[in-house]
């Protein structure tokens, strides 16, 4: 039970703290002080739990480090939630709090975290809890003038005599989030008939006879089936309310608000007891939740057995009023706390034990507190320690702000340095506590983030100096206070790495949201608007990290991406994945909508970025296996293949949830955890709930980002329920702005633009969030590639026919963005030559009215690479016989890189048609030569033992090249094991030409899990001229076969700062358990790290160590022994050890 003494309220109609607020008419930058009071001096932070008069003795103040307690001042404004409407007055920085000083202690009025507001028309009170903190905070300092309450005296005149006051009692237990979304929390009924008796004894409280206003917010759970609910509210044994409600609702509505509010005529002897009786379908039920129960009462104005009593009276409005307090003595005093920054001591008159005072007529409602200075049981604030001087108010002209918990700050600083060095940005790292201290009186509040960013926005010297990016460097929770049953179990250490989230007031249905956009509503034009209608003024992203380890891994990941370590034509590749709909979609005749939207998004990319290949991967193109939970496993395999080859972007449209894509589980959390491809795409997911970063469990979307060495570099994704048509518009808008060829904007700029420009979609955009670094740019080539001639003829003026079996020679050059030739470009060019687009009709697995039709480049004519010298290149290839002969244009995409100069270029060419047959084909009847073929490593011979997931490698040579066209005549690169269809693999896309070796290429493929025992494999390959080669070999699968470590190296050595362990082994692309242990010479273990992952052929498996032991301390310099251990599945463990030197 919470009495009025633990609460205060907002005075309706009065702009409180007027002397501390800044007029909106002044210049934006002048609204703020240039220097925070916290910028100098000695400061101690203190914590309070509820509204009250707080006491600090001189002895306690000395323990806090103050030599002269008589000079201690109090600053702040406590724990009320900050005003979200920026048109209303607010307090900048920290105001001084009036202090009552006695002989050896001080008293001050402090506000807790529940704001009570007077509803003048109804003459009752409502409350709002701070959704971010259970404590309020103030600051102590010395060396400044101490503010004391002003003493006032009012003339005695004929007045309204007031002997009672208006008060409020509250029952509220915040234990459960019904929807796992929104800021409201609830208490579940424990019984179908439940009585609430915790309001206190009416005699002890001095409740007077008369009207009591009983106000209860009740939430019955809804259901998708037809049902009726009945709720009865009784007070003091008398039925006040009985009502019915339909419980049938949509899938995403978890409950319905019911306002149970009635008046009751209280009589002496009545109990302050509320009873709720709930029935569902006429049966007793506990499927309901209580938000709160409030009682508005009148109490006798007298002293109580407590050190202070808050009071106020609606009756005093618009009257000269005389308050009469019984049971008083000379130790009692009255303070007007209507404006807490300007509290006033009111001169009172004491006659016997009756104290009285008069106030003049006023339209406002005044708040008072009766203080009994003879009491010793005042609450005492909790010291939270000294506060380091900081001056965020002195900042201006910053490009990027990183808000990081102090525990993660070191890693945030590394990211800051990377952006300053590589991008020339002005970046600052700030902790949430530093923001709270200057912008919310030290109390956690999401609006403080926004206030801080708005100050930087307003104080900027020019538009170009305004902040552009905000990175929230920490995870979030829908329960910001960690008070619910599920979140409260999290340790304080774990909580340290969380940053606040902005949750909607709506907490019950699909319109509930969490959004980081709120922190970017900075322009004055947003003031006074609803969150759903505000434009975003900066790019805001989040790292959903929960540990130092996560932070380090993600910063390493981003810096690696910024360093552009993975070059290749994958930067010209995108993939658009589409669901085939659900049963509900089929009923609504919407099963094809996802494919329609995904195809439209792919067309947007093709139009905006012609150098990019936008491939389609639609579920309905493939046979469905209804016997498996992953009934589109072939789609999963195809997607994994594309990710392994490399994608700059992957885009999904369809159904989803926090753990998977679609009912068919095409993508799941376990699959994501096993991702090991090194080329990192941007993920865009137009689906539901895929990245609920504020949930207790880590979502699939977060896992993609948090995958240390794979997954994705960033995601534009959904955190709540989203709808198809709106998703489509948002998706297309994002793609249009992402591929703006004139800008190549940072990802945060794209997000800001999408969210700001689409006015009609702003409320829908709230469900989309960006996970990643807002200042990061996609690693897109900035230079151009131009094709000059084909077979010696001008490629632009002459359209060329690519005829079957013809040899084609292409020549071109590398251009700068201004189209000038770069004659010092030396490097590598990669090319894909595509057959013409074909119309594809899906299988119509759902038996819709019509199958879906679309156009796509499906058949590859040639894939290869060549050398670029002095900006020019030439390559030749033979056109295979398995072409479409369509007579329509194909598409060539090109990529080039000069690793020395770190220049990349891209291009496309379409002025050719695929048709006809060569007049003079090469007389070639020899199939490809198999130069080398083995499993796992080159020591393999037919009949050897291998593990359950062996790696297949073949090196091939043919003068005309290997046929990888998939033209439908059976000339595929195939590996067939045991002559069974489910262990037969088409390896066309696994073939790559070897750079600098004409006619030579290689196939690399990780074979899926095989059963133990002997197996026979047949490898078959065709050349472009239609000549096959077949090779048969045998191998034995041994589940216990241990891997082999070929080398382990620590670099650099001697090591200083950090070290990388590079491990090579004979199990490429197999999932392995990898461990690194570091011992001193005496054999004591200092560091141990274990993880599961895989590495590509010819590439090291790399583990990074920051030279800190398992306790977090830096290891001492000296000689150490490092030991590597690897194992796969149920295999035995392989180990290898070496020495290293560590320096300070």
From TrEMBL:
Task: Tell me the domain of life.
Answer: Bacteria
Question: What are the UniProt keywords, alphabetically?
Answer: Signal
As one GO molecular function, the record gives: cysteine-type peptidase activity
| Residue stretches making up the Gingipain domain | 400-778
Q: Does the keyword Signal apply?
A: yes
Task: State if Signal is listed as a keyword.
Answer: yes
A biological process term (GO) from this entry: proteolysis
List the Gene3D superfamilies: 2.60.40.4070, 3.40.50.1460, Gingipain r, domain 1
In Swiss-Prot or TrEMBL terms, this protein is called Gingipain domain-containing protein
Q: Which organism is it from?
A: Parabacteroides goldsteinii
């Amino acid at each position: 039970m919470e009495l009025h003494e633990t609460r205060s309220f907002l005075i309706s109609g009065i702009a409180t703290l007027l002397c501390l607020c800044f007029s909106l008419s002044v210049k934006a930058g002048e609204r703020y002080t240039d220097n925070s009071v916290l910028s100098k001096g000695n400061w101690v932070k203190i914590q309070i739990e509820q509204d009250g008069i707080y006491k600090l003795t001189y002895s306690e103040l000395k323990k806090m480090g103050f030599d002269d307690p008589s000079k201690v001042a109090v600053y702040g404004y406590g724990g009320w939630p900050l005003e979200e409407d920026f048109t209303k007055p607010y307090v900048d920085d920290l105001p001084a709090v009036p202090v009552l000083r006695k002989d050896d202690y001080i008293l001050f009025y402090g506000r807790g975290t529940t704001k009570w507001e007077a509803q003048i028309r109804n003459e009752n009170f409502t409350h709002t809890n701070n959704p971010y903190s259970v404590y309020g905070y103030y600051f102590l300092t010395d060396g400044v003038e101490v503010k004391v309450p002003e003493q006032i005296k009012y003339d005695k005149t004929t007045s309204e005599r007031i002997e009672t006051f208006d008060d409020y009692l509250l029952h509220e237990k915040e234990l459960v989030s019904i929807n796992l979304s929104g800021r409201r929390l609830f208490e579940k009924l424990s019984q179908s008939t439940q009585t609430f008796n915790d309001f206190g004894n009416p005699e002890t409280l001095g409740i007077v006879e008369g009207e009591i206003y009983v106000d209860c917010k009740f939430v019955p759970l809804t259901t998708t089936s037809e049902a009726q609910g009945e709720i009865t509210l009784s007070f003091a044994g008398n039925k006040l309310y009985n009502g019915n409600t339909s419980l049938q609702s949509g899938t995403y509505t978890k409950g319905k608000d019911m306002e149970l509010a009635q008046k009751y005529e209280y009589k002496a002897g009545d109990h302050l007891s509320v009873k709720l009786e709930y029935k569902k379908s006429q049966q007793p039920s506990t499927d309901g939740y209580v938000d709160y129960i409030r009682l508005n009462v009148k109490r006798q104005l007298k002293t109580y057995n407590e050190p202070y009593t808050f009071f106020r009276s609606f009756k005093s409005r618009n009257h000269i009023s005389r308050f009469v307090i019984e049971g008083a003595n000379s130790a009692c005093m009255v303070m007007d706390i209507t404006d807490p920054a300007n509290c006033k001591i009111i001169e009172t008159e004491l006659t016997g034990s009756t104290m009285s005072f008069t106030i003049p007529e006023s339209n406002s409602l005044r708040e008072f507190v009766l203080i009994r200075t003879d009491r010793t049981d005042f609450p005492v604030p909790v010291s939270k320690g000294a506060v380091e001087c900081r001056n965020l108010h002195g900042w201006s002209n910053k490009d990027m702000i990183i808000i990081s918990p102090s525990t993660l700050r070191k890693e945030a600083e590394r990211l800051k340095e990377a952006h300053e060095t590589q991008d020339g940005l002005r970046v600052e790292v700030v902790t949430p506590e530093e923001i709270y201290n200057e912008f919310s009186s030290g109390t956690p509040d999401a609006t403080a983030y926004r206030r801080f960013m708005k100050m930087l926005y307003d104080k900027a010297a020019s538009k170009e100096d305004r902040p552009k990016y905000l990175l929230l460097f920490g995870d979030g929770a829908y329960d910001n206070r960690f008070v619910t049953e599920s979140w409260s179990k999290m340790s304080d250490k774990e909580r340290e790495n969380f940053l606040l989230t902005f949750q909607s007031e709506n907490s019950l249905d699909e319109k509930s949201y969490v959004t980081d956009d709120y922190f970017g509503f900075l322009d004055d034009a947003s003031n006074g608007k609803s969150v759903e209608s505000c434009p975003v003024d900066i790019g805001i992203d989040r790292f959903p990290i929960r540990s130092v380890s996560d932070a380090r891994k993600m910063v390493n990941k981003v810096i690696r991406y910024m360093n552009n370590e993975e070059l290749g034509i994958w930067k010209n590749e995108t993939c658009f994945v589409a669901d085939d709909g659900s049963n509900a979609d089929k009923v609504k005749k919407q099963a094809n909508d996802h494919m329609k939207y995904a195809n439209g998004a792919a067309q947007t990319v093709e139009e905006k970025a012609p150098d990019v290949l936008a491939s389609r991967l639609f579920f309905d193109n493939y046979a469905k296996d209804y016997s498996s939970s992953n009934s589109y496993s072939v789609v999963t395999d195809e997607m994994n293949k594309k990710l392994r080859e490399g994608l700059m972007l992957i885009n999904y449209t369809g159904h989803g949830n926090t753990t998977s894509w679609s009912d068919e589980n095409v993508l799941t959390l376990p699959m994501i955890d096993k991702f090991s491809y090194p080329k990192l795409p941007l993920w865009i997911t137009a689906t539901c709930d895929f990245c609920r970063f504020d949930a207790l469990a880590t979502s699939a979307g977060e896992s993609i980002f948090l995958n240390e060495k794979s997954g994705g570099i960033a995601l534009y994704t959904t955190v709540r329920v989203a709808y198809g048509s709106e998703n489509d518009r948002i998706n297309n808008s994002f793609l249009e702005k992402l591929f703006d060829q004139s800008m190549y904007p940072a990802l945060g700029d794209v997000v800001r633009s999408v969210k700001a420009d689409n006015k009609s979609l702003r409320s829908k955009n709230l469900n989309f969030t960006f996970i990643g670094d807002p200042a990061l740019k996609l690693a897109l080539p900035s230079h151009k590639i131009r094709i000059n001639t084909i077979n010696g003829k001008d490629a632009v003026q002459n359209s060329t026919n690519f005829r079957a079996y013809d040899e084609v020679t292409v020549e071109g050059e590398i251009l700068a963005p201004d189209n000038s030739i770069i004659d010092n470009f030396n490097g590598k060019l990669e090319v894909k030559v595509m057959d013409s687009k074909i119309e594809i009709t899906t299988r119509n697995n759902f038996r819709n009215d019509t199958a879906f039709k679309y156009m796509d480049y499906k058949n590859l004519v040639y894939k290869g690479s060549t050398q670029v010298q002095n900006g020019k290149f030439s390559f030749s290839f033979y056109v295979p016989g398995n072409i479409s002969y369509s007579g329509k244009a194909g598409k060539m995409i090109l990529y080039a890189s000069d690793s020395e100069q770190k220049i990349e270029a891209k291009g496309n060419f379409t002025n050719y048609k695929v048709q006809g047959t060569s007049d003079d084909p090469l007389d070639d009847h020899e199939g490809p030569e198999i130069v080398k073929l083995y499993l796992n490593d080159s020591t393999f011979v037919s009949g050897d033992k291998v593990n359950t997931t062996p790696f297949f490698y073949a090196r091939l040579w043919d003068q005309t090249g290997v046929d990888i066209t998939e033209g439908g005549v059976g000339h595929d690169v195939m590996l067939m094991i045991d002559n069974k269809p489910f262990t037969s693999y088409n390896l066309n896309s696994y073939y790559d030409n070897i750079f600098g070796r004409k006619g030579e290429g290689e196939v690399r493929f990780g074979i899926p899990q095989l059963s133990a025992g002997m197996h026979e494999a047949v490898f078959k390959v065709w050349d472009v001229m239609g000549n096959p080669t077949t090779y048969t070999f045998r191998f034995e699968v041994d589940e216990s076969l241990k891997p082999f470590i070929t080398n382990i190296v620590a670099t650099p050595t001697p090591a200083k700062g950090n070290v990388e362990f590079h491990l090579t082994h004979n199990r490429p692309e197999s999932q392995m358990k990898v461990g690194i242990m570091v011992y001193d010479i005496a054999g004591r273990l200092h560091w141990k790290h274990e993880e599961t992952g895989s590495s590509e052929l010819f590439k090291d498996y790399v583990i990074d160590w920051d030279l800190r032991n398992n306790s977090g301390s830096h290891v001492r310099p000296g000689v150490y022994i490092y030991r590597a251990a690897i194992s796969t599945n149920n295999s035995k463990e392989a180990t290898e050890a070496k020495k290293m030197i560590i320096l300070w």
